Amino acid sequence: MLLHGTDALKQAAAAGHALPGFVVYNLETVQGITAAAEAAGTPVLIQAGSSPFKHAGREALMRLALDAAEDSATARLGVHLDHSRDLDEITACLETGYTSVMADGSHLPFAENIALTKEAVRRAHDHGAWVEAELGALPGDEDVSTDATSVGSAMTDPVQAAEFVAATGVDALAVAVGNIHGLTRDPVRLDLDRLAAIHELVPVPLVLHGASGLPVEELHGALARGVAKVNVNAELRRACLDAVHAALPSALPGSDVVSLWAAGRNAVRDTALEVIGRLTPSVTAPR
User: Fold this and answer.
1) Residue 180 has what pLDDT?
2) What's the angle, vertex CA 207, arms to CA 206 and CA 213, rounded to 5?
3) Which residue from 131, 275, 133 is spatially nearest to 211, judged by alpha carbons?
4) What's the chain's average pLDDT?
5) Which of 128, 154, 240, 259 could serve as a FRET partner for 188 with CA atoms 20 to 30 Å apart?
6) Dihedral, 220, 224, 226, 229 alpha carbons, nearest 10
7) What is the full DSSP assignment across 157-195?
8) 82 catalytic residue (yes or no)
9) What percent of the chain has pLDDT over 90?
10) Annotated catalytic residue: which of 67, 71, 82, 88?
């Protein structure tokens, strides 16, 4: 069933848990995420966004994600537009039925980021959807993991974050506190003191991008400091590709694409279930 509103996000924040946002690229990844949500019995966001649209096509992937969410009898699934810099794209997804969108103005000067986000908030709220924005810059690539590092990152300033949220009316804020898009050679260490300062000043749930491979103590530290939505992509891609690679030798003789794609889908499901388990620890948020 389609998950509307911010209740699940706020409930996760109150419990010290996080709503998982899983990026999808095709039918099998959508099916794997849906199966994980049904098995776990917890709310999940299917993130069919700007970057995957380049592969699958916007209309096709939007419809796949929305149909999966609407057709599931047991899972509560939101459909989220991830990393969009285009108001026309945001509007198209809202009109199609997306339940949330991310207006990504992190590459813009502060005032322009505010302007983009404020307009996205107006459009989304008119459609009954909520908005995530981003302040700060994450290194790495959303679609390819090649030993990304934190060099060149611009971390979120707590005071500026409070000003940004007040000026835009945004519903959730993605922050840069040492997190990195993609898998890394060395363990990522978050600036948890900075994150705590942001949490103290910002009245909306926080979002952590680049959580694939993040050490569990770092992840739980983030959940205890206001992070209520966590994005995972690279970890699912790696699991899918590893499974397809392992299944390929037996699939090739008979050109058995069914078993090949099933292996990838099942790996996405199993990995998503593991992530969901990591996002529901028994933690108490610091005051």
Assistant:
1) 81
2) 135
3) 275
4) 92
5) 240
6) 30
7) PHHHHHHHHHHH--SEEEE-SS--BS--SSPP---HHHH
8) yes
9) 84
10) 82
